[in-house]
Design a protein that fits this description.
By secondary structure, this protein is mainly beta. It has one helix and 23 strands.
Length: about 325
């Protein structure tokens, strides 16, 4: 009788402990091969940007701490119930950041599209979004908006140090101004004004940053000009010392065809690599002297290939990797 009682007691305990177990949390899907392609690369995780699996056009993602941040550029046709925004996912697991769990993680009141976005500031803390006339700044570490500015300007932004940079033009097309925004509070001022000359409309593009051997912060940028009656372009490169509020040097009319890409210059050591529309260029940042210039190869029709609005160059291991519009991939010795 005692043995029967002990058995019944053990059965009751086992049922009780089983009922107390918590259901495991739902994790992002971890398939072996969700798209059924043949590859030696394992798919570690995948998830939907919108929970209803609706599509969207996406900007290039950026890293943030142990996370990767994706940004929808434009709502796809038929995707009327979702808004533009970002998704912040753990690099290893695909799980959303605990402060960014909405769908999407930050809804932005930008009805048409997000022209450009970036992550900047100390520890890549701030996420910046620019659309038409609105520049919004979010703090990725707190999950909230820091500031928002109504502005008129070019659709591209860049960041270096504690600032984000954007350029604007006046209605009379007589000048272009480089604007500096403080990432912490959104206050802004004009750093540099370039006037239009000889019928060429000035057009400052957002800069890249460089710390000089003397510790000064130097911004390098292009003045992308166009003369509409002549259908002719002109590309000048500026080095502006932000610490001393002065222009260090100017390289005038750099490219052979007067055209360029819209991508920021690449800074590596004391060199700057600039991507033209049909050429690549290396400039010594200390002196402003052109170290080398290379045209893209010719295509089968004998025309120089071009890279305009195709893909930004990449600098790595002493080489400059470039991609032309005709499908060529080129590696230059950066020296």
């Amino acid at each position: 009788m005692n043995n029967i009682f002990i058995i019944l007691l053990l059965i009751c305990i086992s049922f009780t402990s089983a009922s107390c177990k918590k259901e495991p949390p739902i994790a992002p899907v971890q398939p072996d091969n969700p798209w059924n392609y043949k590859s030696k690369l394992d798919v570690k995780w995948y998830t939907y940007f919108y929970s209803d699996s609706a599509g969207a056009y996406m900007h290039v993602p950026h890293p943030f701490d142990n996370y990767v941040v994706f940004c929808s550029e434009m709502i796809a046709t038929g995707n009327k119930n979702n808004s533009l925004g970002i998704g912040v996912y753990n690099k290893q697991t695909g799980e959303k950041h605990p402060l960014w769990t909405m769908d999407p993680s930050a809804s932005l009141n930008m009805n048409i599209s997000i022209n450009d976005w970036l992550i900047g500031g100390k520890n890549n803390r701030y996420a910046l979004f620019f659309s038409g006339r609105v520049l919004n700044c979010f703090d990725l570490t707190t999950g909230g908006m820091v500031w928002s500015n109504q502005i008129k300007g070019m659709p591209r932004i860049s960041s270096f140090g504690d600032y984000v940079f954007q350029s604007n033009e006046d209605n009379s097309e007589t000048y272009s101004k480089l604007i500096r925004y403080n990432l912490q509070n959104g206050t802004h001022d004009v750093l540099l004004t370039i006037n239009s000359t000889n019928g060429f409309r000035a057009g400052i593009e957002p800069p890249s940053g460089w710390i000089s051997p003397t510790g000064d912060t130097v911004l390098v940028l292009q003045n992308r000009q166009w003369n509409f009656p002549l259908s002719k372009g002109k590309i000048d490169i500026y080095a502006y010392n932000m610490t001393r509020d002065s222009v260090m040097w100017v390289v005038e009319d750099l490219t052979f065809d007067g055209h360029s890409s819209i991508f920021k210059p690449i800074v590596a050591g004391d060199r700057m690599f600039f991507q033209g529309m049909k050429s690549n260029h290396c400039i010594n940042l200390l002196t402003g002297k052109v170290v080398w210039s290379k045209d893209y190869p010719h295509d089968s029709q004998g025309m120089v290939q071009e890279s305009f609005a195709r893909m930004a160059n990449l600098y790595a291991d002493g080489k400059l990797f470039s991609h032309s519009g005709s499908g060529s991939v080129i590696a230059y010795d950066a020296n």
